Amino acid sequence: MAKAIAKKNTTAKSAAPKKAAPAVKKNTIKLSFDTLHYAPAPESKSSAKIDAQYNLFINGKFVKSQSGQYYDTINPATEEKITSVAEGNAKDVDIAVKAARKAYEGVWGKMPAKERSKYIYRIARMIQERARELSIIETLDGGKPIRESRDVDVPLAANHFFYNAGWADKLSYAFPNKNPQPLGVAGQILPWNFPLLMAAWKIAPALATGNAVVLKPAKTTSLTALKLAEIIQEADLPPGVVNIITGNGSSMGMALVNHPDVNKIAFTGSTDVGKVIQKAIAGTNKKLTLELGGKGANIIFDDAALDQAVEGIINGIFFNQGHVCCAGSRLFVQESVYPEVLRKLKDRIATLIVGDPLDKNTDIGAINSKQQLDTIQKYINIGKKEGAEIIESTCAMPKKGFFCRPTLFTNLAQSSRLVQEEIFGPVLTIQTFRTDDEVIEKANNTPFGLSAGVWTDKGSKVFNMTTKLRAGVVWANTFNKFDPTSPFGGYKESGFGREGGMHGLAAYLRV
Ligand code: NAD
Questions:
Q1: 325 in active site
Q2: How many domains does the chain fold into?
């Protein structure tokens, strides 16, 4: 996807008028709207300043955790420590929930929606202003290529705030005659694959709808959420409206889920943990949305533009090292074009660069943790044992850090664990099909239902597939395109509830 974006930007540049455009005053609203559509954030001057220690953000202040303990956060590309982050516990959760409740019952709950909206806009602008810093820290902490942090994660995070800011005073238009009311305190739990972006997905609609928030990022990637806390503090958001607490999932995350004064849990993460949370919440009056795992099918029909399709397949699985819930991790190719597609895929993966995530030329950065690298390796070994044909790139590999070569598997049975289970790494399985019915049957045959892609020249085929594929999103002749205006979410074990668009707002409202 990053490549596609790079191309788009080049075109935009060359199409720009040769004459100097009329001077646009910097930092005006115009500039921010220019970037709303998925463009890179304006070049910011901020530098990546990382402190020696990070504390919890509660009630508008950075405070030590009750235990006084810290954990190390590691750069997965070098295996070196970046900094220390406060290890919170259930007591910290309770303090944060109390702060959120107070803000909700007080200043935030009473604030006119129009005023709320201004704070959300301000946060969006400040994300843009600190785009460079946020991109670098996202890449250091998470391992994703800087091109992706810079061109996707950070600008899209800002866009989520812009988009939701616009809704804050228009909720009665969005839900006419429904008297939309906030839920109260929202507990939000994040995964490690898109740390800042997921925080924006969750915080922005919660604020637009008038809720207060207690958010817990993933332990291996807490830094950009804490940088967002700095932004929120600088934006003068009233204390307690957003609290960001760091620590273990099973203790602190669970304490947030079980806290009696939390009205809603928004969880994004693995299907296994999602099920634990669903059970814990059963019987309480809490609202719940679960954004869980996926096993996206990318389908190439014989009438597709094959070069474009192959590029889309590459982006679909190798974007963010395959750490993408909606990654196109299963490829289905119509039999008549299979040899050609396979040849093109082999040629293309031979050009991919695995390496330093801070290098702008890197295509595939570091796997987020040793634990995740082991999981991916486990699946690769299973594939080998199953007798599948493995096609692995032979690119140079960094000497240190957690890295994995882009890997393709062919000749796998539909029942193979590689086809059925989420690997969450740069591993693509390839199967063939003859008819539409056959590929629909195969594509729907996993426990998940989050995403799919269809590559074809025929509009009628696209319509047919979108109605029959059990996936929350079906892309046509593109993949991994995200937009704050679109609802996103899954079927089956990929969860329920939608984030983004008006449906994302509804998830934080009582109507
Ligand atoms: P994870 O389930 O291990 O952890 C997610 C979060 O939950 C972390 O913050 C963790 O600390 C916390 N947690 C762990 N145990 C908990 C418990 N018992 N109670 C409360 N919180 C707990 O997932 P992960 O490995 O961080 O993320 C990868 C997973 O996330 C993948 O399965 C991926 O598909 C999924 N994901 C889904 C979406 C989506 O929109 N559907 C988006 C991104 C990632």
A1: yes
A2: 2
Q: Do both 365 and 288 map to the same domain?
A: no
pLDDT digits (tens, 9 = 90+) for 402-419: 999 999 999 899 999 999
Same domain, 176 and 201: yes
Question: Which residues form the domain of 444?
Answer: 297-484
Q: Which atom of ligand 1 is nearest to the CA of 269?
A: 30
Question: Confidence band (pLDDT; 50, 70, 90) for 387?
Answer: confident
Are 454 and 504 members of one domain?
no
Q: Ligand 1 pocket check: which of 152, 325, 373 to mutate, most ligand atoms within 8 Å of Cβ?
A: 325
Cα angle for residues 435, 438, 444 (degrees, 5° grid):
135
Q: Is residue 199's pLDDT more than 50?
A: yes
Structure tokens at 464: 């047919």
**87, 148, 325, 404: the active-site residue:** 325
- CB of 292 sitting under 6 A from ligand 1: yes
Distances (CA, A) of 464 to 141, 415, 458, 472: 42, 25, 10, 15
Share above pLDDT 70 across residues of the chain, in percent, rounded to a whole number: 91
- Residue 219 Cα to ligand 1 middle (Å): 10
CB-CB contact of 242 with 212 (8 Å) = yes
291 annotated active-site: yes
Instruction: Determine which one of 133, 138, 148, 291 is catalytic.
Output: 291
Task: Using DSSP, state whether 297 is helix, strand or coil.
Answer: strand
What mean pLDDT comes out for the span 292-308?
Answer: 98
Pocket test for ligand 1, best of 85, 189, 216, 372 (most atoms within 8 A of CB): 189
CATH number for 90: 3.40.605.10
Per the structure block, which two tokens stand in for 101? 């409740």
Q: What is the pLDDT of residue 453?
A: 98
Instruction: Compute the half-sphere exposure of residue 288: CA atoms within 13 Å on the CB side of its CA.
Output: 20
Distance CA 131, CA 40 (A): 9
pLDDT, tens digit (0-9, with 9 covering 90-100), for 107-153: 999 999 999 999 999 999 999 999 999 999 999 999 999 999 999 99
Neighbouring residues of 65: CB distance < 8 A, sequence distance ≥ 6: 55, 56, 86, 87, 88, 89, 92, 247
pTM for this model (two decimals): 0.91
Distance of CA 483 to the CA centre of its chain: 11
